[in-house]
TrEMBL record:
Residues given in the record as a divalent metal cation binding sites: D166, H168, D255
GO cellular component: chromosome; cytoplasm; nucleus
Keyword Ligase: no
Natural source organism: Bos mutus grunniens
Organismal lineage: Eukaryota, Metazoa, Chordata, Craniata, Vertebrata
The protein's name in its UniProt record: Histone deacetylase 8
Principal place of residence: nucleus
């Protein structure tokens, strides 16, 4: 079978390193993947930068022009910025437009590789910015590369399944496709009063022709691998039968992992890896994206482990020596141990949610 495509160039990593929320994260992820020599088993493809036209397949011209303008000046107090969601969570820093165009272009490049039949799996760990709206930045996301990737895949694949395993609700992607039956969005996320973005309750199912094509699985703090996998597998099994997707876009934000500053879920990469394996066994064209993940070493551990899962490789427990080795102390191992925190998900409530979703998919 064809090796996976891995979207990478030194220039791309260096642009992604500049994101203030996750400084140098892209380098840490790539360096660890390289330290385990996983890049040698993949087809490395250099990403193209997205053109204004490509970005405008989802975003409004007015928003893109404003983003470009404030990016050139590094102007964080432009009067129109508030209207476009810039400031606070999404500061209008210098060069932000180039970052957005780079990430958007990388995800489009990955999608095109799948369309061209170059691979069955294409990976862009620096993508997955799922909160951005067509005319508004949100939650550290300036450009919704996941939406751009889905729109590109729609040129070839009739029905696309988007699965979002980030800690946060994939609201930007859901909103983009809430009225269509051609894209089904499935999001497993923390749902709790006051927790960003506040949407994605189980009753949120899509609109118009897209009714029942949005699936939301609200989860409480402390969930661990076994229960999470049970939920994920139960939902995906029903989704696959009901929707019969032709391609998959999978967002694997690592902010669910134990040790993340979000301090919410209590997952390890092994649990997420089981969910990934479940999707890979469908053998569909699959676009893999990153997302959140604010404990940088754990995020690199997670995405490196998941790259190993995609390649069918078991990785050595000892972190190999490499540029960022010291970030992996004090034990310098790939494994992550769950924290001692209670799981707030009651089996009865979980079953209620699963039954509700199953009913909608029938």
């Amino acid at each position: 079978s064809l090796p996976p495509v891995y979207i990478y160039s030194p220039e791309y990593v260096s642009v992604c390193d500049s994101l203030a929320k996750v400084p140098k994260r892209a380098s840490m992820v790539h360096s660890l993947i390289e330290a385990y020599a996983l890049h040698k088993q993949m087809r490395i493809v250099k990403p193209k930068v997205a053109s204004m036209e490509e970005m405008a397949s989802f975003h409004t011209d007015a928003y893109l022009q404003h983003l470009q303008k404030v990016s050139e000046d590094g102007d964080d107090d432009h009067p129109d910025s508030i209207e476009y969601g810039l400031g606070y969570d999404c500061p209008a820093t210098e060069g932000i437009f180039d970052y957005a165009a780079a990430v958007g272009g990388a995800t489009i490049t990955a999608a095109q590789c799948l369309i061209d039949g170059m691979c069955k799996v294409a990976i862009n760990w620096s993508g997955g910015w799922h909160h951005a709206k067509k005319d508004e930045a949100s939650g550290f996301c300036y450009l919704n590369d996941a939406v751009l990737g889905i729109l590109r895949l729609r040129r070839k694949f009739d029905r696309i399944l988007y699965v979002d395993l980030d800690l946060h609700h994939g609201d930007g992607v859901e909103d983009a496709f809430s009225f269509t039956s051609k894209v089904m969005t499935v999001s497993l996320h923390k749902f709790s009063p006051g927790f960003f973005p506040g949407t994605g309750d189980v009753s949120d199912v899509g609109l118009g022709k897209g009714r029942y094509y949005s699936v939301n699985v609200p989860i409480q703090d402390g969930i661990q691998d076994e229960r999470y996998y049970h939920i994920c597998e139960s939902v995906l099994k029903e989704v696959y039968i009901a929707f019969n997707p032709k391609a998959v876009v999978l967002q694997l934000g690592a902010d669910t992992i134990a040790g993340d500053p979000m301090c919410s879920f209590n997952m390890t990469p092994v649990g997420i890896g089981k969910c990934l394996k479940y999707i890979l066994q469908w053998e569909l064209a699959t676009l893999i994206l990153g997302g959140g993940g604010y404990n940088l070493a754990n995020t690199a551990r997670c995405w490196t482990y998941l790259t190993g899962v995609i390649l069918g490789k078991t990785l050595s427990s000892e972190i190999p020596d490499h540029e960022f080795f010291t970030a992996y102390g004090p034990d310098y191992v790939l494994e992550i141990t769950p924290s001692c925190r209670p799981d707030r998900n009651e089996p009865h409530r979980v079953q209620q949610i699963l039954n509700y979703i199953k009913g909608n998919l029938k």
